[in-house]
Amino acid sequence: MRDLSNIKNLIIKIGSSSLCDDEGNINKEKILNLIQQIAYIKRKGISITLVSSGAINAGVHVMNLECRPQTIPQKQALAAIGQASLMQIYEDLFSLFNLKCAQILLNHDDFDDRKRLMNFNNAMQALIEYDVVPIINENDTLAVEEIKVGDNDTLASLVVPAVNADMVVLVSDIDGLYDDNPHTNKNARLIRNVDGITKEIESMAKDASSKVGTGGMITKIRAAKVCNDFGCDMAIVNGNQPNVLIDLIEGKDVGTYFDGKPGRLLNSRQHWIMYRSMPKGTIVVDEGAKKALVTCHSSLLPKGIIEVRGNFLISQIIDIVDGNDNLLARGMVNYSSDEIRLIKGLNTSEIEDVLHYKDYDEVVHANNLVLVEGVKN
Length: 377
Description:
This protein has 14 helices and 15 strands.
C-alpha cells in the first residue's frame, strides 16, 4: 500500500481512449464512470484539475463522419465543433454530483509568455478556490506546429506548477509501463514503481499508442520526467479497470507509479526555463565554456561563444550546445541574437566598445540558466 494521504492537488489527464469506444465515438458511460470516481476523490478534500482529450473525436461524432479527417483545417474545424459538445457532456455529468466545471484551452505559447502564464496561474488558483473543476485541453482549433504542445500527457505535466500539483494521473487504455511492448511480447512485465527516469526506463518506452489517442508510452515517460523534476509524482493507470482512480488514491497497487522525491527539484522559474518555454534559438560554446557551465554552473560569457543560430530577443529562452550539438543547458539571454553575434569570442571588457552600451557582463547569467540533468563534461 502506498501512502498518498498528503495529496491535496491532483491533475487527472483522460486520454481519448478512456472517453471513446473502440470505434472512436464518445462513450458517455465511460465518462460517467470516471466522473463518479472524481466526485468521490473531491469529497476527500482533494482539488482536481482535469486535462481532457477527445474534442476532435467528439466533432467526428457530432458530424456523423465515417472516419477522422486528415487535413489540418478539417481537424481544426472538428475540434471547435467537438469541444462544445464535449464540454456539454462534462457539464451535464458533473452536475449529477453537484459539481461545476470550467473550460480552459491552451497552446504552448501560453506557457512561453511569462505575463500570460502568470494570468493563467492566477485564474487556476481562483477556480480552485471556487471549488470548480478546471477542464483543460489544447486549443486545437488555433494550434499550428510552432505553438502546439502536441499531446495531453505533456500538457498535464506543464500545468503542474500552476496548481502546485502533488500528483498527475494519466488515465489511458494501458495498465502502465512494461519492460517490453505488451502488444508484441506476452511475457512483458508490468513495472509497478519507478524511482527516477533513467536511460533504462526510457528504453522500456517502446511506442504503444492507442488507436484513438496521440500519446504513446514515450510521451508518458517524458511527462513523468517533467513532473518529477518539480517534485510531483505521476501515475499511469488503465481507465478500463473499475474504480482505478479510487484504488490509486487509497494507496492500492495499481498502474505504474513514478515517485517524484528522488528527482531533482526545480523551482517554478527553473522549471519554466527548462520545460515550459520554447527555445527561440541556439548558442554554440567552446570546450572551455562547456567545462565552466557543467562543472561550476557558471554564467555564460561572450568569450566562450563560437556560433549563434536563429533570431531571438533579449530575455528569450535559448538552447546552449557544445560543438557536437549536445544540449548542455537552457537559459534566458541578456542580449539579442544580433548583439551576441557581434560580441561572441570577446572579453566582457570589450562589450561596450562594440555595442556602445553594456547592461550585463554575462550573455546568460547563472541564475537564469538550467543545466540538462546528467550532462557530462
